[in-house]
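can u pls check wat happens w/ flavin-adenine dinucleotide
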Amino acid sequence: MSTSTLVWFRQDLRLRDNPALTYASERGTVIPLYIFDTACPENFVPGGASKWWLHKSLGRLNDSLDNQLHCAKGDASKIIIELIQQHNIKQVVWNRAYEPWQIKRDTLLKQTLVEAGIDVQSFNSHLLWEPWQVLKKDETPYKVFTPYYRRGCLSKPSPRMPVDTPHNLQVEYIPQLDKGLDSLALMPDINWYSTMQEMWTPGEQGAAKHLSEFLPNGAEEYKNKRDFPDLGATSKLSPHLHFGEISPNQIWYAAIHALNGNTEDVGLDCYLSELGWREFSHSLLFHFPHIPQKNFSPKFEHFPWRSDDKSLKAWQLGQTGIPIVDAGMRELWQTGTMHNRVRMVVGSFLVKNLLIDWRKGERWFWDCLLDADLAANSASWQWIAGTGADAAPYFRIFNPVTQGQRFDPQGDYVKRFCPELAKMPDKYIHNPWDAPQNILDYAGVKLGKNYPEPLVDLKASRLRALDALAQSKQQPEEITGKV
Ligand code: FAD
């Protein structure tokens, strides 16, 4: 009989503040295992950018474990059951994962193992508060962020304090169990990831570095600068958080500590509440597991989305002729990320100005984002489309020109990703179609030749969206730069 504990790594690719690993290491030797689960439903298989990140992150975890991480690919439940039988393992631990299919899989597996006399323990390492702990007085889930966070989360006991890396971690390495990282086939055949490689350092050390660089310079300024895509004022921790290379608890307490515990600080409050949005997304996905596929609000079930593959393609490639939309979509393609403000603008443009179903945008983000996260992505897309819980009402339509003028006033962000507009003066950088011919000539911009004509007229497409909306009997309102 093996006295080692099987530690099943999932979205917790770190040694520090890893409750399952700590628990196991206190009981003796551990068998660390990662399985790329091929039983994952097709829709939820990680996209290309995520797979690249996962490969790198597992590589770093393997380094930290002195090359003793076991990697396997296949039906995770079957692999674990076989392994336990073959090696007579009596203890299994993991940190909880929250996608609906993962919950189903883990519940079933736990039941099977417990029935077979195995000691199975699961822990929370991914969220500050468990989704089933934060409920309204009537025990139903919150659907609106502010009461969820302020009344729900903040009235609960403070989040768990982080724990340190286990001392003297003893690993049992079983060569026949380890198929090697490359056997997971996560890396793409074509090298489209070189820019990402330059920009990002997946893994626990990369996450800790990002946090330590952000906190002294960023948290205080965060509130004022976070909406400006060219200022780099946000923490850039989302892919690290998604893969669990850092826990929200580590960030929560490090942020409080960096501001000497001054919880009245508006920058700190604002930053912590963004972690609150992450919790809220997970709570929505937990209580309403259909949100990745179905409109939260059933009245959108028959909404007249347009089928327009040409426009969808132009949006995906950053060729819509609307500069801030194109800059955002090109940023996504080139770097695997996009600034939050711009995510909202490109999302609104797709679902409202182009009237294309939010699920097509969600899928594209899923494939291209390094931080693609089922909870955050589906909740945010539904928010933007106005179909979700606590959603921007459908009749709110971001105006990409005024949003650009407000949050990228000199067009620095647009010029970075749309170099063909580099010489456009500030006045026309977000609306080159309004520029007089002599200005276009001076800037070397030939609309329809070296930069596209706008795919749609913003005013007309807004009215078209409002017409479609009239079928849902709601009232119009436009977001200019003020929100
Ligand atoms: P910071 O501003 O530094 O925030 C700190 C952390 O808080 C983030 O790392 C993230 O974990 C969390 N957070 C911040 N804003 C949100 C939010 N609105 N919802 C949920 N969590 C948030 N975020 C993802 O992690 N994965 C996604 O797949 C994803 N898809 C999105 C799709 C759309 C259409 C929109 C509008 C937003 C999406 N977001 C997603 C939320 C947000 O854009 C990113 O979390 C943020 O841009 C990450 O940058 P950061 O780490 O610098 O964030």
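Confidence is low (pLDDT under 50) at residues 475-483.
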